[in-house]
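Entry
Fold in token form

___
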Amino acid sequence: MNKRIFPIIALSASTAAVILLVCFWFLDMTHDYPSVQFNSNWTVRVGNVEYPHVKLTEIHSLFSTTPKRGDTLIMTLEMPFIGDIPLPAIVFRSNYSAIKCYLDGKLIYEYGIEKYDNNKFVGKKYHFITLPRNYRRSYLTFKITACEKDSFSFFDPVYFGNYPDLLTFIISNNQFVILIGMFLFIFGLFMLTLSLLFITYVPELKIQLFGSLLCITIGLYLVCYSNMLSLFVNTDIETEIEYFTLCLFVPLCYIILYFMKELKLKKTMLVLFVASIIIPIFQQILYYTLSIHLKRTLVLFDINALIIYGLITYCFIRTIRKKKALFVKNLQMIGMFGLATSGFIHLVGYTLTTYRILPAQTATFPVIGLGAIFYAMTQLAYYLLYITRTFAQRKERESLVHLAYADGLTDLPNRASADRSMNELDKSSNDYCIISIDLNGLKPVNDKLGHPEGDKYILDFSKVLTSTFGQHGMCARIGGDEFLVIIKDAISLDIDDLISRMNSALDVMNALYPTYVRSVAAGYAYSHECPGKNSHEVYLLADRRMYENKKIMHEKLGIDARL
């Protein structure tokens, strides 16, 4: 396993911790007045039968058969005196039900009655009901009508307190699920933005794109499933949003598996994928055209979800068994399997609470949110690993390109690089200049002092060449003792003056280090001197002038000219 994986995983976990802490700080609220739970001592009437001293959380046990649409129950409580509360209120969570609330027989609140009468969908909701200041010793009564089958499967306790404090109290009680939902939503938006910015340049980030959408979807689902969205946003379609986001899970999982190259679009897989898209569309059509409520068709999603869970499990086992599989790919698959498993546990828990095998509170635990956080961390770790791997590959590629176009000794551009630059000159209309330079006396230095000293001669000159011409053009070493300078815009430059500066710098070096004499022969030519000819013709003219200069210098020094 690569050593950089552990720091990246640690960074991913730290990122999650920071985002969760920020969300926790945002949700840290104080209460001026206590909130009191009203769970016991309710008088409940089911049909013509009245049950005294009933706990709200145990109302479901009063039904011998599964409640159906249209069934009603009435529950009454004598309000105790709690104390002097500035804005007394109660909060009650309904579950697919229409409600009427009375205080001493006077209607003070109602919800969902018109929707029920028109056969419209009534979802789940927290109801904040204000009370008069003289609430003490009054009788609080709820008349609840089931809008769906099994609407009375669970009841949360009624809470009493100061109206603003009740709001913060409910938020505090659901702080964990809000934290997870906010984290997934914020993280998903962040990763979605990154993916959209770079997907054009890095097509492999398509997985991140749909993974980010999945995190956003799960985050939104969790806050709607726990009825927290309506506490922050005034909406009456919270449960519809919950079902809509729920239906997006399966198609997004298919798409992610496809881009992970775990699924091939063969006939069976194509049918399953198309079905995962058609089923939620079909559910919406039934709901909006025939008023067949989303809760009634939820079994279609359950079947769809079980199929994708089976496929993810199969892909996970197959990937883990591959000994040569990349850890990065395994990391993605581990995240998908963790998310799918948490979704499966969530589905099983919800089903068991529906059949009253487990208490209703079990279904509200955000296990799928924990799985989604695990998935988000694996996605972030994958992204960081992919970026670091891509950066390393780019550096390696740049290094190879540099080796292909750079001289190994001086690190100046080599002949191949010079040829490429000269070809580009042919496309330019500027008056350019090419300078051909040749070292004098390199062979005697190599013969008498050794090749290391000869290499030092070349290196010393390359530094002088770069300091003289580097800011004006490209300096290249095109052979053992042959150098080239290309100046693309030479109109404003005095080339003779630059060559004199170069020779002066060599004279200074000779004075400081008199072991041998450093000198060069140079010749240059402008493009306007070779009208209609290419850069190589200009170079040949500069090279011919350099050899003429070299011949003169050798005659003065009594050295045989090198042909």
Notes: The chain has three domains: 36-171, 174-391, 415-557. Residues 436 and 484 are 5 Å apart (CA to CA). The longest strand covers residues 88-95. The radius of gyration is 40 Å.
